[in-house]
Design brief:
- This is Hydantoinase/oxoprolinase family protein.
- Pfam families: Hydant_A_C, Hydant_A_N, Hydantoinase_A.
- It comes from Haloarcula argentinensis.
- The protein is of the alpha+beta class.
- Helices cover 31% and strands 29% of the residues.
- β9, α5 and β10 form a beta-alpha-beta unit.
- The longest helix is centred in the first third of the chain and has 32 residues.
Length: 664
């Protein structure tokens, strides 16, 4: 039966499925469900039925979900307690002295995930040199009794300097695990890195989402077993997959699971001969933007979700609340705004005909003619054009616009402006010229907006991968297995002993290699967080082994010059050692064939201020190397592609479409 892989990505509106078998790629979309595992199984069954295969013949199941990020955004995670060092009870509340809105006198910090009444102190003391005061075990057991009486659902343990000497923290965590029947997250296991606030915050997030992840993965594993498919392998925020048991223990690594899968999918299917790709994933609730350079997704360890720092390695994604289901509204000053509130999957946009009455981006696209009234979203959801017009007519009245068509133009432009700013934030604001990149557009709504956004940024090339509407699900089929480890090792490069640094890398690598699925094929990559003496934060650069201080110093200076425009004649400090292990997986081979007449007909669509009779094509029937001049609309089962005037699109041999600015 060959290699049959299935990938399932849960979004805010739809659950996307890709199934690869014998060179064929079968896709499916189903509405997302409150219990995400129900929609996942429904999607798998739909894809298998379309492919006429038994689910029991599936050899591999990879999955990306939104359970953890939803818990953070909606603040409905576990009832969590924090145990910390005496005197550091309020670290979560104090945070850093910097303020996101410096001149806003009414600015408020986010409510801590753990309220003060559930934050407990233990009498212990650890310094960077070692243990000065051991833990009083009776005191810890007394805290455990109080936690039991409070019915907490999880516990975070973050003791001072546990990243350097974890003995006290290990003992506290062990006692709590013995005394309580709830998960316990210890900071040295979650993030063995200095900076008390960020380490405590990341550990608290892990504890906050861990019960939800554990329950969800357990339900999904049981449902998968009942269907006869393998245990799911889960996409992490770092762009790699791992086994289900690992994410149960390290729940915080799943916070950007879905967006990471999309970036991986874009990198595997949309190779571009330019400097790289700006990836643009527009789904039902939000849009995610990232960069792929030299075939690798850009990563960061400075993530923030709902104003809470999370210092786990993750694909560097900028998210804006502008998706197909984002609701358009008028603010107090009379300005048209989009999102972040979304109509979701139920009731969804007004045009879904499920009772929604508020205007959304999808409704605007329908009124503009980019989506046809006869279009069936996801292959099964028919649209109500009258409901979309009514919703936008109400918006037009509120905004003082001339009817639903003018309101739809405004919604489209504002949504594009929001996404353009996000792209500038990952390119221009980080020293990259967006004109040197291609724009890879995917997600259910991305290809409808991509060319207009590219125009505003002077990007002359848009790449729409095959299966663009379910590209995150495809990325799951192509993602490598990845694991990360970090340890703070703070020294001046002038005084560091390279052999000591090499020993740290060796120990970290060995820890990870004992956990990988195939040690023989695993590769190890080392990096270092470096900074000039006196700086507050670091830059991460790759380093070779054996560790060479001169080489590390030069790589840091080059990276600093690229990021900030200069290099300094200052001492360089090594701060953290990082190791990533990778077990590579090749993307499944996918054949592309097309037969039949791709022209489906035409409909009126709005471009700039003109209403044009626009030809409509069926994507699956576009033969390789064929070209279409804009204006045109290309429809697929999962997404619709809008080609404006002055653009043209061509099909590649693998089914990827490339839109470029026309020479004429």
């Amino acid at each position: 039966m060959g290699d049959r892989r299935i990938g399932v990505d849960v979004g805010g509106t739809f659950t996307d499925v890709t199934l690869s078998l014998d060179g064929e790629l079968v896709t499916a979309k189903v509405p997302s469900t409150e219990d995400q595992s129900e929609g996942v199984i429904a999607g798998i069954e739909k894809a298998c039925e379309a492919a006429e295969v038994d689910p029991e013949t599936v050899s591999e199941f990879s999955h990306a979900m939104t359970v953890s990020v939803n818990a953070l955004l909606e603040q409905d995670g576990a009832k969590t307690a924090l145990v910390t060092t005496d005197g550091f009870r309020d670290v979560l509340e104090i945070g850093r002295q910097d303020r996101p809105s410096l001149y806003d006198l009414s600015a408020e910090k986010p409510t801590p995930l753990v309220p003060r009444r559930r934050r407990f102190e233990v009498s212990e003391r650890t310094t960077t040199d070692g243990i000065e005061q051991p833990v009083d075990e009776d005191e810890v057991r007394s805290i455990a009794e109080q936690l039991r009486e409070m019915d907490v659902e999880s516990v975070a343990v973050s003791l001072l300097h546990a990243y350097a000497h974890p003995e006290n923290e290990t003992r506290v965590a062990d006692i709590l695990r013995d005394e309580l029947d709830v998960p316990v997250s210890a900071s040295h296991e979650v993030l063995a890195e200095f900076r008390e606030y960020e380490r405590t915050s990341t550990t608290a997030v892990d504890a906050y989402v861990r019960p939800a992840i554990d329950h969800y993965v357990s339900r999904l594993t049981d449902r998968a077993r009942d269907l006869g498919i393998p245990q799911p392998r889960i996409m992490q925020a770092n762009g790699g997959i791992t086994d289900a048991d690992t994410v149960r223990r390290n729940a915080v690594t799943t916070v950007l699971s879905g967006p990471a899968a999309g970036v991986v999918g874009a990198g595997s299917m949309a190779a571009d001969e330019q400097d790289g790709l700006v990836t643009f994933d527009m789904g039902g609730t939000s849009s995610d933007v990232s960069l792929v350079r030299d075939g690798e997704a850009e990563r960061t360890t400075e993530g923030v979700i709902n104003e809470r720092p999370i210092k786990t390695p993750m694909v560097d994604v900028e998210t804006v609340g502008a998706g197909g289901g984002s609701i358009a509204w008028v603010d107090a000053g009379g300005a048209l705004r989009i999102g972040p509130r979304s109509a979701g999957a139920n009731p969804g946009p007004a045009c879904y005909g499920k009772g929604g009455t508020e205007p959304t981006v999808t409704d605007a696209n329908l009124v503009l003619g980019y989506i046809g009234a006869s279009t069936s979203l996801g292959g099964e959801l028919s649209l109500d054009a009258d409901a979309a017009h009514d919703a936008l007519a109400d918006l037009a009245d509120e905004a003082g616009l001339d009817g639903p068509l003018e309101a739809a133009r405004g919604v489209y432009r504002v949504a594009n402006a929001n996404m353009t700013r996000a792209i500038r934030s990952v390119t221009v604001e980080r020293g990259y010229d967006p004109r040197k990149f291609g724009l890879a557009a995917f997600g259910g709504a991305g290809p409808m907006h991509a060319a207009a956004i590219a125009d505003s940024l002077d990007i002359d090339r848009v790449v729409i991968p095959r299966a663009s509407g379910v590209l995150s699900a495809y990325g799951l089929l192509a993602a490598d297995e990845k694991r990360d480890a970090v340890r703070t090792y703070q020294r001046s490069l002038d005084a560091v002993d390279p052999d000591d640094v090499e020993a740290v890398y060796e120990e970290l690598a060995e820890e990870l290699l004992t956990e990988v699925s195939d040690r023989e094929t695993a590769t190890v990559r080392c990096s270092a967080d470096l900074r000039y003496a006196g700086q507050s934060f670091e830059l991460t650069v790759n380093v070779d082994r054996p560790f060479d201080t001169a080489d590390a110093r030069e790589r840091f200076a080059t990276a600093h010059e690229s990021a900030y425009g200069y290099r300094a004649d200052e001492s360089v400090e090594l701060v953290n050692c990082r190791v990533t292990t990778t077990v590579e997986r090749s993307a499944p081979p996918v054949e592309y064939t097309a037969a039949g007449d791709p022209r489906k007909g035409s409909r009126e669509a709005v471009f700039t201020d003109d209403v044009r009779d626009t030809p409509v094509y069926e994507r699956a029937k576009l033969p390789p190397e064929s070209g279409i001049d804009g204006p045109a609309i290309v429809e697929g089962d999962e997404s619709t592609i809008v080609i404006p005037p002055a653009w043209e699109v061509r099909a590649r041999d693998d089914g990827t479409l490339t839109a470029v600015v026309s020479d004429t």
